[in-house]
Structures are given as structure tokens and as C-alpha cells.
Fold this sequence. Notes:
The chain is α/β, with parallel strands linked by helices. The protein contains twelve helices and 13 strands. The strands form four sheets. A four-stranded parallel sheet has the order 4-6-8-9, with helices on one face. A four-stranded parallel sheet has the order 10-11-12-13. Helix 3 (about 85-100) runs antiparallel to helix 4 and helix 5 (about 150-165) packs parallel to helix 6 (about 180-195).
Amino acid sequence: MALSFFKKNKDKPSGSDNQPAATPAPAMDDMSTETLLTMNMSSSGIVVEETSGAPQSPVDEAAILYASGQADMTESLLKGVLATGDRRAWYMLFDLYDIQNREKDFEQLALDFAVRFETSPPVWQKAGNGAAAAPKQDQATSLELPGLLDKTAAAALRECIDNAAKTAVIHIDFSHIEMVDEAGASECAKILNSATRAKRKLQVSGVDRFIALLQDLNRATHSRAVHWLLLLELYQTLGQEENFENLAVDYAVRFEVSPPSWSQVQAAVVVQAEPAAPRDDALQLSGEITPANDSALQEVGTYAATHEEVLVDLAQVTRVDYGSVSQFISVLMQCLGSGKSITLRGHNALIHELFRVMGIDQLAHLVPLHPA
């Protein structure tokens, strides 16, 4: 099997070795006369042919410019290609705006896309390594409580509620709780009480399972009052007055003290817990892959040493530098030479077009963010 890839300019930019620098954009004319190199891997029957890396279209050129750190030139070039109707250019510009946290430009491009192609455009989402976007006042926030509801877990719940916008919907997932200690029960009851009295908008999931756990704890011979009080507060939070009153009577009998009183509050909304997303053993990379930050490629090599199927998730990677392409190809070739299959997934359109131009699509199965 013959696989071709394109040779990169191996000249390093001048400057201090410990100062990250964008790789200079290669001169397009200089890329048309490259030496042909053939590598024969006898163990795998793979022949690699190094061929010209000259860009064949403006999309190719934009991919190389962005990989070389020339974001402004990339944007200008892509804008000039939009009129041709090449969707690759549109998706590249969408992802550039996303990475640069330019939501207004993204939304305007989305409107233009919908008009031009009469179909739904991509949806704005925060890129993996972009600047933090300002939270919206009605933005939802959520917290998945861990298996042990202790003081630390309760502190995380308090922080989640305190940091959420006043009008935000706060989703609390109780479905993973297996144990509740006294400190966690006491703190959680106080937090729920404060949240309902402050009229916070609460959504809860996994609550039936959590109630069953508390009921089991309360039936124990040496049950703790704090677990009863947490269950009472949970019934209060859910607006379950009858269950609250019945448990309050049992609490008074069991502990010979007056129980809490029922209050009219805004009840939390019970929602079904979302099924857990299937988790695979993919290697998750993030940020930029550059010559000054090549640890990501070292991670790929380390990961590949213990996996027959090399699955690399690039959803949080914003750029692969032009100067790192040859090393990337070298790592992939080592994997192929060992008989491993390679899948690169989730990468943005700018990276996808770079991979295509440089022949990486011939070395690995690509599953980009925007399927063709």
C-alpha cells in the first residue's frame, strides 16, 4: 500500500528556543519543488511517498496559513472564498470565530449561511481553549454529586448555587450518591433550605433513588437525625407536602423533638437523569500542538504503545502548527508500522483541511467536527 504525505519546511524560526513562536507562513512558490522520498516498511507492506505540498486551492492555502499562525490572513482569504459556495471555507471561518470567541461575527455568518444554503448553520459553542465568554443571565448550570455526599460534596453544591446567576436554572443530579455522612447530610439540608427560600430555580434528577437511600438510612436502628432532616428538606424542596407531614410525625416520635414546619416554596422540577454518554478509551488532547509544546504528540506515542486501536480526540485542540506536522506524521507512521489502526476525531475544520492537504487523511481515519 502506498501512502503519500507532504514535506514541510524544516527551517526553524529565529529567536530563543524557549519562547513559543508561530511558524512563519511558508512561501507558496517554494512548496512546488520537493524531493520525492520513498520509505518501505517491510513488516507492514507500507510504502510512503513524500510529494509536493503545494496548495491546490484557496482552502488549502487558508489551512496552511492558519497552521502557520497567520489567523488574520486566514480570515481574509476565507471571506474571499465564501462567495464560491465552498462549504469548507464557511466551516473553517465558523471555527475560526469560535476559537477567537467572536460570537457576534459567528452569528452573522450563521445568518448568511442559512440564507445561502437554506439549511441550519452550526451552533455557537465555546471552543476548547478560547477566552471565557460572559455568562448569560438565564444560562443553566448543573452539578453531578459524587458517590459520597460528605462535607466536600456539599461545599461543591453550595459553590455551584452561589456562583449561578440569580435567574439561572440549577440542575442537581443525585443519581450517583451511594453514601451520606452526617456532615454532608447536615450541610446539604441547609443548602437546599437556603436555595428554596431564595426562590432559586432548581431542577433535580436521580431524586427517587436518593430518597430510597435516605429512607433505608432512617429505618436503621441507630439512624441519625441529620438523615431524617435531609429527607424532610428534600420533600420540602420537591413540594411533596403529604410525604413531608408523614415523615415529620415519625421524626417527632423517633427523636422526641418538634419537627420542622412545612413552608410554601417554589418546588424543584424533577427531570429524568440523562443517560451517561458512552465512554471510550480515547486519548484527549487540548490546546495548540506546536514545536514549543510537543508533549501532546509524545502522549500519542505513549498511548499507542498500549493500544491496538489508536483513538485520539482532538475536539479541544484549537490549532496544529505547521511546524509540528512532520512529527505528527512520524508518530502516525510508527503506529501504522506496528499494525495499529488510527482514528482522529472531533477536530475543527481548520485542522481537518490541514490534515487533508498534508496527506494525514491517508494515514488515519478522520472523523471531523463537521462531517462532509
